[in-house]
Input
Amino acid sequence: MARLREEYNKKIKQEVMKDLGYKNPMQVPTLEKIVINMGAGEVIANHSALEEIIEMFRLISGQNPVVNKAKKAISSFKIRQGQDVGVSVTLRGARMWEFFDKLVNVVFPRTKDFRGLKASSFDGSGNFSVGIEDHTVFVEIDPNQVSKVRSLQVTIVTTADNDKDAKVFLDKFGFPFVKDVNRS
Output
């Protein structure tokens, strides 16, 4: 079992229940899925970039990504309907928990000039999105083998009904939020 999932079941669930005043353990927020997404607009000019991006996603997530196609043509961006425009992976279960552990304990600390995540990145429904500007912060990626530094987006989907509950839940895992500082 994933380390953070075990910690959630043994310790964090009870702490969140106490902090949020829940009576039933089934009310406590948990991770539902993690979606990793990257736009692949450069594929229009460089067809080999798609294979690089797919391999990068395999290494980072541990599973095969889905190649997203354009739903309609946009002439100003030189995109035709059905053309490859992005790559995404949806993680659930054990892989999701392992990725979450890696994100919190390895990726964020390795990020250059990292000052924490803003709580304003919640979507109003308890889900949190963060952009990672440099994919080489993942330990699976060898920076010497990279042809271009790419950015990706990670969305953490929780079962929380609101942002406050989701923030309490993520805080318990040591999620690196920017501390609220009142400046005088």
About this structure: Helices lie at 3-20, 48-61, 93-110, 163-172. The mean pLDDT is 85.
